[in-house]
Write a structure and sequence with these properties.
Largest sheet: none
Low-confidence stretches: none
Shape: elongated
Number of strands: 0
Order of helices and strands: HHH
Structural class: mainly alpha
Strand content: under 5%
Mean pLDDT: 93
């Protein structure tokens, strides 16, 4: 849609967080079969997901600021900035979804503790 071909370094960092979050969630899902026995580990994993999301928020802000500064002075830079802002927004939503899942899992652990 955007004819976008190259991730900014911050975008790549956010993608790395998405991949790591998926791995953490892949570890957590099977543990849901026995909440009582796995509550401590599940809580550790959900805390990790929340920390990762907070780190992604920092990267998101840094990346947007950098893109704005880089494209604010270019002719046609506004359009490029808007495209990059959209990419960052989509990546942020993905990471936020992992945090939402972590919160749901944590709620289950608390309910069954």
């Amino acid at each position: 849609v955007y004819d976008f071909v190259e991730f900014e370094p911050e975008m790549a960092d956010m993608v790395g967080i998405v991949i790591d979050s998926a791995r953490v969630l892949a570890e957590a899902i099977p543990l849901l079969r026995d909440l009582a026995s796995n509550g401590t580990r599940l809580h550790e994993l959900t805390e990790r997901l929340v920390r990762m999301e907070a780190h992604a928020d920092e990267i998101h802000r840094t990346g947007l600021r950098s893109a704005f500064r880089r494209h604010a002075t270019e002719g046609g830079g506004s359009l490029q900035f808007m495209v990059k802002r959209e990419i960052y927004k989509h990546l942020e939503r993905i990471v936020d979804s992992f945090e939402d899942i972590a919160n749901e899992i944590d709620g289950l652990v608390i309910d069954h503790a």
